[in-house]
Specification:
The protein is α+β, with helices and mostly antiparallel strands and about 140 residues long. The chain has one domain (about 10-135): Alpha-Beta Complex (Nucleoside Triphosphate Pyrophosphohydrolase), CATH 3.90.79.10. The chain contains two helices and seven strands, in the order ββββαβββα. It has helices spanning about 50-65, 130-135, and strands at about 10-20, 25-30, 40, 45, 70-75, 90-95, 110-120. The strands form two sheets. The chain has a four-stranded mixed sheet, with helices on both faces. Strands 3-2-7 form a three-stranded antiparallel sheet, with no helix packed on it. A hairpin with an 8-residue loop joins strand 2 (about 25-30) and strand 3. The chain is globular. The N and C termini lie far apart (about 40 Å). The model has no long low-confidence stretch (mean pLDDT about 95).
Length: about 140
């Protein structure tokens, strides 16, 4: 369905922040630009015919193979330059599990790999994901 607007529109994305009781966070290594090879929260664009909640569940499963983790809307991030491609607003969802050993993530789709990282020793992160994680831990 084509759209024609007289002014630009932002893109809508979702991110899934999964934190464990053993103080780990789930990250994916990006397979594609921007930020190719950097680590990020699992996430992506909301399809035109899906809710943000369903998009977060879909992206989590597509990029890590994990499903069935209850997700709760946390916060919306919309800094002007958070995505170098274009204007992007992201709704972040959080999920909590007891132990990272109970879930074995596998990188898939546009994630080269996926894994658990110690909350206090994170790699360099893509986009504003360091801010998102910091906000969630407060």
């Amino acid at each position: 369905m084509p759209y024609c607007y007289k002014y630009p529109r932002p893109a809508l994305t979702v991110d899934a922040l999964i934190i464990t009781g053993d103080e780990k966070v789930l990250l994916i290594q990006r397979k594609n630009p921007p930020f190719k090879d950097l680590w990020a929260l699992p996430g992506g664009f909301v399809d035109i015919a899906e809710t943000p909640e369903k998009a977060a569940e879909r992206e989590l499963e597509e990029e890590t193979g994990l499903k069935g983790i209850p997700l709760k809307q946390f916060h919306c991030y919309g800094a002007i330059d958070r995505d170098p491609r274009h204007r992007t607003v992201s709704i972040v969802f959080t999920g909590k599990i007891k132990n990272s050993a109970d879930y074995k993530p596998i990188g898939n789709d546009d994630a080269a790999t996926a894994g658990w990282f110690d909350i206090n020793n994170l790699p360099k992160l893509a986009f504003d994901h360091d801010v998102i994680i910091s906000d969630a831990l407060k």
